[in-house]
Task: structure prediction
Amino acid sequence: MWIGPRRMLPERMDDPAETEADWETALRDLGRLNRWTFANRPLHAFLDRFSGDRAVSVLDVGAGGGDVLMAVQDFFGARGIATDLTALDISPHAAPCAQRRHPGLRARWVTSDVFDLPEAERFDIILCTLVAHHLPDPDVVRLLRWLAARANKGWLILDLQRDALAWAGLWLGTRLLRLDPMVVHDSTASVSRAFRRADWQRFLAESGVAAKVRTSFPYRWAVTGGPM
Result:
């Protein structure tokens, strides 16, 4: 139940040697874990700010199995708002996994590092869910600047808190629920890589980006910015 400085422990999901089948099984159980912990509540609260728009373009950074963009499509679709969705993930497994998991998702898929996306690409809304903790500190600062430069209306980072109870809860819960071994391993590694408020304050100061940092149950950060 370690709560010291960030430790960039290895995560199996980042390992290119993992097979597509193993990656997809892990995404399935990760999606279940996110549903059980109400992970979409801060996402919906953020999206509600754009309910008066007629159309929005949305980029999901680290789109994984497409769960977040599917939630976005459903949210805006229920309000009659047209969406132009783009999913970006560095893993070649992401697009085929998402297409099998969410055949109704209408999104353009891009397999790329976020920092390699062409400079001309801009979006109304950019989402970054459970991605920042995969990055070393300098790249988190770089990501904040990137989001501020590319989002026309607003951006959202949702990520984990580095907390002893979060670590213990994931260690125990993933085992009791018999989740996929990749999820069991990566869950506590992710908390070790995660953030405390002082980390976000430092990153924002170094980046020169203005943003609001809020806590979200359970043990999540919601960092929001943009000209809103």
User: Anything to note?
Assistant: The mean pLDDT is 89.
